[in-house]
Amino acid sequence: MNVLDNPKYSYLVGKQPFFFRIWKTLFYFYSRVVFTIYTPLKVFGQENIPKTSFIFCSNHNSHMDVALLSAAAEKSFNYFGMLAAKDYWFDSWVKRNLVNTVMNLIPIDRKVGGIRQFSIEDTLTLCKTFMDYQHRNLIFFPEGTRGAPGVMNAFKKGAASFALNLDIPILPAVIHGSHKSWPKDKIFMRPAAIRVYILEPLYPGSFLDTDNPGDNDLANAAQEMTMELERRITEKVKNLYE
């Protein structure tokens, strides 16, 4: 079966059913109220947001970071997707549908013995199809997990690999203050000022020397793009925490 014909992933293809769209929209406006009154958000660099689809990449210190990036771009959760482990989020009907009422999860399979049961090609197909509708976007946290405020972990190459394979730019951003409002070890948010700095995008073509790249070309470009992404975000983080 073609992955696009699988009803399990139908919410990623074209216009979503009303039930999915309304909850994402309502949660977005709830977040905007919170970011206006309770944790005031200020955004810098909105002029850097591409008119096309993009991959949003930022530092990651809090559970609220996805909502902050959505608010910073002034786009509801209908316009953002995130990769999620297929074996954890998609093999359970409850998990899959509960989370997808507010977030568009795209399955990616973890390797077991060096093998994926769900191919990376199928993941890329779902990503491309998702983004082809109304210029939707992806969110990646290249550190792979929440880190300590002001301390950057080494970036993984996933975001760059997807950007190169999908031919879409990466939009770097730095979030400052979410660690004060919703730290890793706390259940509830607390009032705090938050800033999001949107940096200039990175375009895949700037890291490729050929129009017909092979596997080695893509691997080298992914490494270089990841290093540049890490440099830009880390430099901004250091400036904010000095």
Task: Describe it.
- With about 240 residues, the protein is α/β, with parallel strands linked by helices.
- It has one domain: 3-Layer(aba) Sandwich (Glycerol-3-phosphate (1)-acyltransferase).
- It has eight helices and seven strands.
- The chain has a seven-stranded mixed sheet, sandwiched between helices.
- Helix 1 (about 20-35) packs across helix 2 and helix 6 crosses helix 8.
- The mean pLDDT is about 90.
Give the structure's gist in a few sentences.
The protein contains eight helices and seven strands, in the order αββαβααβαβαβαβα.
Detail the topology: elements first, then pairings:
Blueprint: H1 18-37, E1 41-44, E2 55-58, H2 65-73, E3 80-85, H3 86-89, H4 93-99, E4 104-108, H5 120-132, E5 137-140, H6 158-166, E6 170-176, H7 178-181, E7 194-198, H8 215-241
Helix pairs in contact: 1-2, 6-8
List keywords for this structure.
Glycerol-3-phosphate (1)-acyltransferase, 242 residues, alpha/beta, single chain, 8 helices, seven-stranded mixed β-sheet
| Form type | globular
Beta-strand percentage range: 5-15%
CATH superfamily: Glycerol-3-phosphate (1)-acyltransferase
The top level CATH class name: Alpha Beta
Overall SS class: alpha/beta
**H/E series, N to C?**
HEEHEHHEHEHEHEH
Amount of helix = 25-40%
Give me the side-by-side strand order of the main sheet.
1-7-6-2-5-3-4
What count of helical segments does DSSP give?
A: 8
- The CATH topology is given as Glycerol-3-phosphate (1)-acyltransferase
Euclidean distance between termini CA atoms: 53 Å
Residue stretches low in confidence (pLDDT < 50, at least 5 long) are: none
Quaternary assembly? single chain
Radius of gyration (CA) equals: 18 Å
